[in-house]
Specification:
about 290 residues; mainly alpha; 12 helices; 2 strands
Amino acid sequence: GSPALAMSAGYSEPPDATPSRKDGVDAQTELRYRREGIEMIRSMAGALKLQPTTCATGIVFYQRFYALQSFKQFPRWNMAAACMYLAGKVEEQPKKVKDLVPLLFKLRPRPDMPVTPQIETDLQDMNSKLFKDLREKVLGCERVLLQALRFDLIVEHPFEHLIKVCRGIKVLGKDKVPNELVQNAWNFITDSFFSPLCLQVDPRVIAVAILDLAARRLSLTIAPIEGPPLAGGEPWWHRFTPHSNPRELEYVCVQLKEVYGGELPGAVVTPSSEPRTKKLRTASATDGVA
Protein backbone atom coordinates (compact mmCIF):
# COMPACT_ATOMS: atom_id res chain seq x y z
CA GLY A 1 0.00 0.00 0.00
CA SER A 2 0.96 3.63 -0.26
CA PRO A 3 2.88 5.15 2.67
CA ALA A 4 0.28 7.93 2.59
CA LEU A 5 -2.30 5.40 3.78
CA ALA A 6 -0.17 3.91 6.53
CA MET A 7 -2.04 3.08 9.73
CA SER A 8 0.09 3.44 12.83
CA ALA A 9 -0.09 5.24 16.15
CA GLY A 10 2.11 8.26 15.68
CA TYR A 11 2.16 8.36 11.90
CA SER A 12 1.83 11.86 10.54
CA GLU A 13 3.07 13.22 7.26
CA PRO A 14 5.69 15.97 7.48
CA PRO A 15 4.03 19.34 6.73
CA ASP A 16 5.58 19.62 3.28
CA ALA A 17 5.21 15.96 2.26
CA THR A 18 1.62 15.94 0.98
CA PRO A 19 1.15 16.10 -2.81
CA SER A 20 -0.56 19.50 -2.42
CA ARG A 21 2.31 20.96 -0.39
CA LYS A 22 4.80 19.70 -2.96
CA ASP A 23 2.60 21.39 -5.56
CA GLY A 24 2.93 24.79 -3.89
CA VAL A 25 -0.29 24.82 -1.82
CA ASP A 26 0.47 26.28 1.63
CA ALA A 27 -0.54 24.43 4.82
CA GLN A 28 -3.45 26.73 5.76
CA THR A 29 -4.95 26.61 2.28
CA GLU A 30 -4.66 22.82 2.17
CA LEU A 31 -6.40 22.55 5.54
CA ARG A 32 -9.17 24.86 4.31
CA TYR A 33 -9.60 22.84 1.10
CA ARG A 34 -9.87 19.61 3.11
CA ARG A 35 -12.50 21.11 5.39
CA GLU A 36 -14.52 22.63 2.58
CA GLY A 37 -14.67 19.34 0.69
CA ILE A 38 -15.65 17.44 3.82
CA GLU A 39 -18.33 20.02 4.64
CA MET A 40 -19.73 19.61 1.14
CA ILE A 41 -19.86 15.81 1.53
CA ARG A 42 -21.67 16.19 4.86
CA SER A 43 -24.13 18.68 3.38
CA MET A 44 -24.78 16.41 0.39
CA ALA A 45 -25.32 13.41 2.66
CA GLY A 46 -27.78 15.41 4.74
CA ALA A 47 -29.70 16.64 1.70
CA LEU A 48 -29.85 13.11 0.25
CA LYS A 49 -30.78 11.61 3.66
CA LEU A 50 -27.87 9.18 3.62
CA GLN A 51 -26.76 7.17 6.64
CA PRO A 52 -23.86 8.55 8.74
CA THR A 53 -21.71 5.57 7.69
CA THR A 54 -22.26 6.38 3.99
CA CYS A 55 -21.27 9.99 4.62
CA ALA A 56 -18.18 8.81 6.54
CA THR A 57 -17.17 6.51 3.67
CA GLY A 58 -17.36 9.47 1.27
CA ILE A 59 -15.10 11.48 3.58
CA VAL A 60 -12.58 8.64 3.86
CA PHE A 61 -12.42 8.40 0.05
CA TYR A 62 -11.84 12.18 -0.07
CA GLN A 63 -9.10 12.04 2.58
CA ARG A 64 -7.43 9.06 0.89
CA PHE A 65 -7.52 10.73 -2.52
CA TYR A 66 -5.85 13.94 -1.37
CA ALA A 67 -3.24 11.97 0.55
CA LEU A 68 -2.22 10.75 -2.91
CA GLN A 69 -3.08 13.67 -5.22
CA SER A 70 -2.85 17.46 -5.22
CA PHE A 71 -5.72 19.90 -4.71
CA LYS A 72 -4.13 22.01 -7.44
CA GLN A 73 -4.59 19.23 -9.99
CA PHE A 74 -8.07 18.09 -8.95
CA PRO A 75 -10.70 20.66 -7.82
CA ARG A 76 -12.10 19.78 -4.41
CA TRP A 77 -15.79 20.47 -5.12
CA ASN A 78 -16.10 18.05 -8.05
CA MET A 79 -14.05 15.41 -6.23
CA ALA A 80 -16.18 15.75 -3.09
CA ALA A 81 -19.31 15.08 -5.18
CA ALA A 82 -17.60 12.07 -6.82
CA CYS A 83 -16.63 10.70 -3.38
CA MET A 84 -20.22 11.00 -2.20
CA TYR A 85 -21.50 9.37 -5.39
CA LEU A 86 -19.09 6.43 -5.08
CA ALA A 87 -19.74 6.03 -1.34
CA GLY A 88 -23.47 5.70 -2.03
CA LYS A 89 -22.79 2.76 -4.32
CA VAL A 90 -20.26 1.12 -2.00
CA GLU A 91 -22.56 1.40 1.05
CA GLU A 92 -25.61 0.22 -0.95
CA GLN A 93 -27.36 3.58 -0.74
CA PRO A 94 -26.88 4.56 -4.39
CA LYS A 95 -28.06 7.96 -5.59
CA LYS A 96 -28.51 9.04 -9.19
CA VAL A 97 -26.11 11.56 -10.70
CA LYS A 98 -29.13 13.75 -11.46
CA ASP A 99 -29.71 14.07 -7.69
CA LEU A 100 -26.09 15.09 -7.07
CA VAL A 101 -25.67 17.61 -9.90
CA PRO A 102 -27.99 20.34 -8.48
CA LEU A 103 -26.36 19.95 -5.05
CA LEU A 104 -22.86 20.26 -6.51
CA PHE A 105 -23.81 23.60 -8.06
CA LYS A 106 -25.80 24.97 -5.11
CA LEU A 107 -23.45 23.92 -2.29
CA ARG A 108 -20.32 25.26 -3.95
CA PRO A 109 -19.75 28.89 -2.92
CA ARG A 110 -20.20 30.82 -6.17
CA PRO A 111 -20.90 34.51 -5.42
CA ASP A 112 -20.18 35.21 -9.09
CA MET A 113 -22.94 32.86 -10.23
CA PRO A 114 -26.12 33.00 -8.12
CA VAL A 115 -28.85 30.43 -8.71
CA THR A 116 -31.18 32.24 -11.11
CA PRO A 117 -34.52 30.78 -12.24
CA GLN A 118 -32.85 29.83 -15.55
CA ILE A 119 -30.03 27.99 -13.77
CA GLU A 120 -32.59 26.26 -11.51
CA THR A 121 -34.34 25.05 -14.66
CA ASP A 122 -31.08 23.94 -16.28
CA LEU A 123 -30.06 21.96 -13.19
CA GLN A 124 -33.23 19.88 -13.52
CA ASP A 125 -32.88 19.48 -17.30
CA MET A 126 -30.60 16.54 -18.11
CA ASN A 127 -30.20 17.85 -21.67
CA SER A 128 -29.00 21.32 -20.68
CA LYS A 129 -25.34 22.22 -21.21
CA LEU A 130 -24.91 23.10 -17.52
CA PHE A 131 -26.28 19.75 -16.36
CA LYS A 132 -24.21 17.76 -18.88
CA ASP A 133 -21.01 19.62 -17.93
CA LEU A 134 -21.51 19.01 -14.22
CA ARG A 135 -22.47 15.36 -14.73
CA GLU A 136 -19.32 14.76 -16.79
CA LYS A 137 -17.19 16.40 -14.09
CA VAL A 138 -18.63 14.10 -11.41
CA LEU A 139 -18.26 10.95 -13.52
CA GLY A 140 -14.77 11.96 -14.68
CA CYS A 141 -13.68 12.53 -11.08
CA GLU A 142 -15.15 9.17 -10.09
CA ARG A 143 -12.96 7.45 -12.70
CA VAL A 144 -9.86 9.27 -11.42
CA LEU A 145 -10.84 8.45 -7.82
CA LEU A 146 -11.23 4.73 -8.51
CA GLN A 147 -7.81 4.60 -10.18
CA ALA A 148 -6.12 6.55 -7.39
CA LEU A 149 -7.63 4.22 -4.76
CA ARG A 150 -6.70 1.22 -6.94
CA PHE A 151 -10.32 0.06 -6.59
CA ASP A 152 -9.70 -0.65 -2.88
CA LEU A 153 -13.08 0.49 -1.57
CA ILE A 154 -13.27 -1.40 1.72
CA VAL A 155 -13.76 1.05 4.58
CA GLU A 156 -14.19 0.24 8.25
CA HIS A 157 -15.49 2.96 10.59
CA PRO A 158 -15.16 3.54 14.35
CA PHE A 159 -18.98 3.77 14.67
CA GLU A 160 -19.55 0.01 14.50
CA HIS A 161 -16.75 -0.60 17.02
CA LEU A 162 -18.19 2.03 19.37
CA ILE A 163 -21.55 0.23 19.45
CA LYS A 164 -19.84 -3.15 19.89
CA VAL A 165 -17.67 -1.91 22.77
CA CYS A 166 -20.64 -0.21 24.47
CA ARG A 167 -22.36 -3.61 24.57
CA GLY A 168 -19.37 -5.07 26.40
CA ILE A 169 -18.87 -2.44 29.12
CA LYS A 170 -20.57 -1.28 32.28
CA VAL A 171 -20.39 2.15 33.91
CA LEU A 172 -19.78 2.04 37.65
CA GLY A 173 -22.74 3.32 39.65
CA LYS A 174 -25.12 3.13 36.66
CA ASP A 175 -27.75 0.53 35.76
CA LYS A 176 -26.82 0.77 32.07
CA VAL A 177 -24.43 2.63 29.80
CA PRO A 178 -25.77 6.23 29.83
CA ASN A 179 -27.06 7.60 26.53
CA GLU A 180 -25.03 10.76 27.15
CA LEU A 181 -21.81 8.74 27.03
CA VAL A 182 -22.68 7.05 23.72
CA GLN A 183 -23.94 10.31 22.19
CA ASN A 184 -20.84 12.29 23.16
CA ALA A 185 -18.54 9.59 21.80
CA TRP A 186 -20.60 9.36 18.60
CA ASN A 187 -20.42 13.14 18.11
CA PHE A 188 -16.66 13.15 18.60
CA ILE A 189 -16.21 10.29 16.11
CA THR A 190 -18.37 12.16 13.58
CA ASP A 191 -16.17 15.24 13.87
CA SER A 192 -12.93 13.21 13.91
CA PHE A 193 -13.36 12.73 10.15
CA PHE A 194 -12.14 16.32 9.71
CA SER A 195 -8.76 15.04 10.94
CA PRO A 196 -6.44 12.56 9.20
CA LEU A 197 -7.17 9.91 11.88
CA CYS A 198 -9.12 7.76 9.40
CA LEU A 199 -5.87 7.37 7.41
CA GLN A 200 -3.60 6.83 10.39
CA VAL A 201 -5.20 4.85 13.22
CA ASP A 202 -7.11 1.56 13.46
CA PRO A 203 -10.85 2.36 13.76
CA ARG A 204 -11.11 0.14 16.86
CA VAL A 205 -8.49 2.27 18.59
CA ILE A 206 -10.25 5.49 17.54
CA ALA A 207 -13.50 4.11 19.03
CA VAL A 208 -12.03 3.20 22.45
CA ALA A 209 -9.88 6.35 22.64
CA ILE A 210 -12.88 8.59 22.01
CA LEU A 211 -15.16 6.58 24.32
CA ASP A 212 -12.53 6.87 27.07
CA LEU A 213 -12.26 10.61 26.44
CA ALA A 214 -16.05 11.05 26.56
CA ALA A 215 -16.23 9.05 29.84
CA ARG A 216 -13.54 11.19 31.47
CA ARG A 217 -15.30 14.39 30.43
CA LEU A 218 -18.55 13.11 31.96
CA SER A 219 -16.69 11.85 35.09
CA LEU A 220 -17.78 8.26 34.41
CA THR A 221 -15.78 5.09 35.16
CA ILE A 222 -15.89 2.29 32.60
CA ALA A 223 -15.21 -1.41 33.27
CA PRO A 224 -15.56 -4.46 31.01
CA ILE A 225 -18.56 -6.72 31.71
CA GLU A 226 -16.79 -10.02 31.00
CA GLY A 227 -13.51 -11.43 32.27
CA PRO A 228 -11.71 -11.03 35.59
CA PRO A 229 -11.63 -7.67 37.39
CA LEU A 230 -9.12 -5.21 35.97
CA ALA A 231 -5.63 -5.73 37.36
CA GLY A 232 -3.96 -2.81 39.12
CA GLY A 233 -3.29 -0.11 36.57
CA GLU A 234 -4.88 -2.01 33.67
CA PRO A 235 -7.04 0.37 31.59
CA TRP A 236 -10.52 -0.84 30.65
CA TRP A 237 -9.84 -0.42 26.92
CA HIS A 238 -6.98 -2.93 27.07
CA ARG A 239 -9.59 -5.73 27.03
CA PHE A 240 -10.94 -4.51 23.67
CA THR A 241 -7.72 -3.35 21.95
CA PRO A 242 -4.93 -5.31 23.67
CA HIS A 243 -2.30 -4.21 21.14
CA SER A 244 -2.86 -0.47 21.57
CA ASN A 245 -1.02 1.72 24.06
CA PRO A 246 -1.70 4.97 25.99
CA ARG A 247 0.45 6.99 23.56
CA GLU A 248 -1.74 5.89 20.65
CA LEU A 249 -4.94 6.85 22.49
CA GLU A 250 -3.45 10.21 23.42
CA TYR A 251 -2.57 10.82 19.77
CA VAL A 252 -6.25 10.33 18.85
CA CYS A 253 -7.29 12.89 21.49
CA VAL A 254 -4.69 15.42 20.31
CA GLN A 255 -5.84 15.11 16.69
CA LEU A 256 -9.47 15.50 17.78
CA LYS A 257 -8.67 18.66 19.75
CA GLU A 258 -7.07 20.14 16.63
CA VAL A 259 -10.37 19.69 14.79
CA TYR A 260 -11.92 22.14 17.27
CA GLY A 261 -8.99 24.55 17.18
CA GLY A 262 -7.28 23.12 20.26
CA GLU A 263 -10.21 23.16 22.69
CA LEU A 264 -12.84 20.42 22.96
CA PRO A 265 -16.45 21.63 23.06
CA GLY A 266 -18.47 21.18 26.23
CA ALA A 267 -19.94 17.76 26.90
CA VAL A 268 -23.44 17.26 25.51
CA VAL A 269 -25.45 16.41 28.63
CA THR A 270 -28.74 15.88 26.75
CA PRO A 271 -28.52 14.22 23.31
CA SER A 272 -29.17 16.92 20.73
CA SER A 273 -28.95 17.30 16.99
CA GLU A 274 -28.05 20.99 17.37
CA PRO A 275 -24.54 21.86 16.17
CA ARG A 276 -22.02 22.52 18.93
CA THR A 277 -20.09 24.94 16.76
CA LYS A 278 -21.04 26.87 13.65
CA LYS A 279 -18.85 24.68 11.47
CA LEU A 280 -19.36 21.18 12.88
CA ARG A 281 -22.63 19.30 12.73
CA THR A 282 -23.53 16.30 14.90
CA ALA A 283 -25.25 13.05 14.04
CA SER A 284 -27.31 10.81 16.27
CA ALA A 285 -25.82 7.65 17.74
CA THR A 286 -28.94 5.81 16.68
CA ASP A 287 -28.88 6.91 13.04
CA GLY A 288 -28.37 3.82 10.93
CA VAL A 289 -26.49 1.84 13.59
CA ALA A 290 -28.10 -0.81 15.72
